[in-house]
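Question: I have long wanted to understand how a fold can be written as tokens. Here is the record:
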Amino acid sequence: DVFCYAKNVPNTNYNTFRDSYIEYATLHVSESAINAYKEKAPWSGFGHIVALSGEEPEVKKCATPTIAYENGELVFECETEGVTFVPDIQISSENRGKLNGGKLSLDIVSTCTISVNATKDGYENSETATKTITLNDNGTSEKLRVSDLTRMIEKYLQQKDE
């Protein structure tokens, strides 16, 4: 017995079941897709193609990760064990001008938007978590220092290359 829970017939190589004697096996598929499986090789080679008994596989989903900035590092955590984090970092800057008498002073305000989701084999990807942090050069606890961000991006790129 082979159980295939795909609602649409998967594309497979014609010799996927070579030497498997599928003509003696039963393929269990979604009731709405039986005819499609019967018409498409190599699936059509099964001796019997029958409807699933209403059983659907339980699809687990990774928990939404959290993002923290601690001791000069971004920290990703997730309740689902063994996940891989997939981060995305976007930096934007905005000039804000202040006119004081006849003088115009410009402040550059930068923000870093970090998005991350968690992925794991056999699981559906998590929802995306997002955190926006204001960038500055003095590194207060509420803000991310530009030097820390540069170091974190370099560290992330090195890990990604490994």
Remarks:
- Helices lie at 34-39, 146-161.
- The chain is about 15% helix and 40% strand.
- Confidence is low (pLDDT under 50) at residues 138-142.
- The CA atoms of residues 8 and 33 lie 7 Å apart.
